């Protein structure tokens, strides 16, 4: 039994056009039923108990309009609680994209530096000076936030430490990997690492003298203006908190133990719980800063900061090429690189898509969140002034998140 409901925050059915690379794209709310159908069909086909999606778009006149929809039947199957736009779910690694704005703001304020060795912030007894190929090396915040530090990713064993003692902050996580060898010389490779983000959390704790997740909670609430986002912890209740599920051979099951433990100590890498509105507001704030709309100095970040973060490229690290299936067309040679706190994808500039002209020279910044029992995505399309977000309460949907974002963009703009 599946139901869906959707809501338009601002009930003006409007249309506007924008010109990108010589093409005119017309945004039209009348096309929303197509998006609704896309997401409802996807929810049905994947047997997702609860999927919530939303968009927020700048209308060129200083206004923003939003649509959110909830699909599937249950935020909590066992207690018969319906899925709705108010449902709070884990955003998993989308927490990294949110945290990156906090870090960038601390850099703007002069409290942190992208390029200083981390021993400026972390005493050597907590995290020793590292070597690679018998050479002492520096590790920087910039390398941590781009996953170029060479610090290994977390493994399931790391999460089990929480059975032994109660973790209060990110600094306490360092001992889990502090003595492990680097995988490559910092700045000379890419290896996605939750532990790298634990180190970022510890760096923030060293200057703020408070646990990272509490610093982030204040930032999300007071600076970004997210109405309900918080960190998952054993110190408070979370209202409207949906359950997470895993689907095995078509059966809906509770999450694995590791998924229950995971968010608590790993706040910087993935501890945020949010409803869809929170992610959309964050997307708008990033777009506003990027386009420097607010002349009153109220942007959360400087335009130059976002430019640096979203365009970062280290020539020592190769750019990957990806393939994506959009509608029924296979698109090759999509360039993927991890910039500062975000995943960036650039569509090829030498292929002109007849059916999908919107893909010509398209680029976007996004972050995927994935654990065994939750998937999330926040995607920002700067040229379209467009944010798409999705949260779900089951795992293994990661490979569909990007196409859903792009197909939604396509439906609304062409
Ligand atoms: C989704 O499933 C429901 C219930 O089976 C059905 O009524 C609805 O038409 C389906 N929607 C789509 C788009 O397939
Ligand atoms: C994006 O939307 C905002 C808010 O409506 C508007 O002020 C701005 O001009 C738009 N920018 C672009 C590049 O479309
Ligand atoms: C490493 O950091 C120290 C300061 O902590 C600095 O003096 C040194 O130049 C850095 N080395 C490199 C190779 O960047
Ligand atoms: C590091 O030093 C040790 C001992 O001097 C030597 O055996 C080893 O080959 C060196 N490793 C590299 C990668 O240079
Ligand atoms: C790229 O590698 C060279 C040679 O090791 C080094 O000098 C340079 O700093 C590296 N660039 C970055 C961004 O790490
Ligand atoms: C982190 O927790 C440890 C152990 O309880 C404590 O000693 C330390 O002061 C805490 N640091 C921060 C920044 O909360």
Question: Using DSSP, what is the number of strands?
Answer: 20
CA-atom Rg in angstroms: 21 Å
**Unreliable sequence segments:** none
Separation, N- and C-terminal Cα atoms: 32 Å
Structural class: alpha+beta
- In DSSP terms (H or I, runs of 4 or more residues), the helix count works out at 11
> Roughly what percent helix?
25-40%
Bound molecules: 2-acetamido-2-deoxy-beta-D-glucopyranose
- Mean pLDDT, to the nearest integer, reads 92
Widest sheet, order of strands: 1-5-4-20-19-18-17-16-15
General description of the model:
This protein is α+β, with helices and mostly antiparallel strands and 414 residues long. It has a domain at 3-92 and 275-413. It is built from 11 helices and 20 strands. It has a 9-stranded antiparallel β-sheet with strand order 1-5-4-20-19-18-17-16-15, sandwiched between helices. Strands 8-14-11 form a 3-stranded antiparallel β-sheet. Strand 18 and strand 19 form a beta hairpin. The longest helix has 16 residues, at 276-291. The relative contact order is 0.17. One 2-acetamido-2-deoxy-beta-D-glucopyranose (NAG) binds next to loops.
């Amino acid at each position: 039994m599946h139901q869906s409901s959707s809501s338009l925050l601002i009930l003006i059915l409007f249309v506007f056009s924008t010109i990108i690379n010589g093409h005119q794209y017309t945004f039209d709310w009348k096309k929303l039923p197509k998006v609704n159908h896309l997401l409802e069909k996807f929810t049905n086909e994947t047997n997702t108990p609860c999927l919530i999606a939303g968009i927020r778009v700048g209308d060129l006149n200083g206004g923003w309009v939003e649509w959110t929809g909830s699909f599937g039947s249950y935020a909590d199957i066992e207690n018969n609680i319906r899925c709705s736009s108010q449902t709070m779910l884990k955003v998993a690694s989308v927490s990294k994209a949110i945290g990156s704005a906090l870090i960038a703001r601390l850099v703007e304020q002069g409290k942190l530096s992208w390029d200083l060795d981390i021993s400026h912030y972390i005493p050597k007894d907590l995290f020793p000076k590292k070597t690679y190929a018998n050479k002492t090396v520096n590790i920087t915040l910039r390398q941590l936030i781009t996953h170029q530090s060479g610090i290994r990713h977390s493994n399931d064993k790391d999460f089990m430490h929480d059975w032994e003692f109660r973790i209060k902050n990110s600094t306490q996580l360092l001992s889990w990997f502090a003595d492990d060898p680097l995988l490559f010389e910092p700045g000379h490779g890419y290896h996605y690492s939750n532990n790298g983000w634990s180190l970022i959390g510890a760096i923030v704790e060293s200057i703020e003298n408070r646990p990272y997740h509490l610093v982030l909670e204040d930032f999300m609430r007071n600076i970004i203006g997210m109405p309900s986002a918080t960190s998952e912890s054993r110190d408070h209740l979370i209202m409207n908190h949906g359950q997470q599920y895993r689907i095995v051979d078509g059966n809906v099951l509770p999450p694995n133990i590791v998924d229950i433990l995971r968010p608590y100590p790993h706040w910087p890498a993935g501890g945020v719980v949010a409803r869809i509105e929170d992610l959309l507001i964050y997307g708008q704030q990033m777009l506003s800063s990027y386009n420097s709309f607010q002349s009153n100095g109220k942007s959360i970040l400087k335009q130059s900061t976002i430019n640096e973060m979203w365009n970062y490229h280290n020539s020592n690290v190769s750019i990957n090429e990806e393939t994506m299936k959009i509608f029924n067309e296979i698109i090759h040679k999509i360039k993927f690189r991890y910039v500062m706190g975000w995943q960036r994808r650039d569509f090829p500039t030498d292929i002109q898509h007849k059916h999908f002209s919107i893909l010509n020279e398209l680029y976007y910044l996004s972050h995927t969140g994935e654990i065994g029992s939750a998937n999330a995505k926040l995607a920002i399309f700067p040229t379209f002034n467009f944010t798409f977000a999705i949260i779900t309460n089951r795992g293994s949907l990661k490979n569909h998140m990007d196409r859903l974002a792009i197909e939604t963009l396509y439906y609304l703009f062409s």
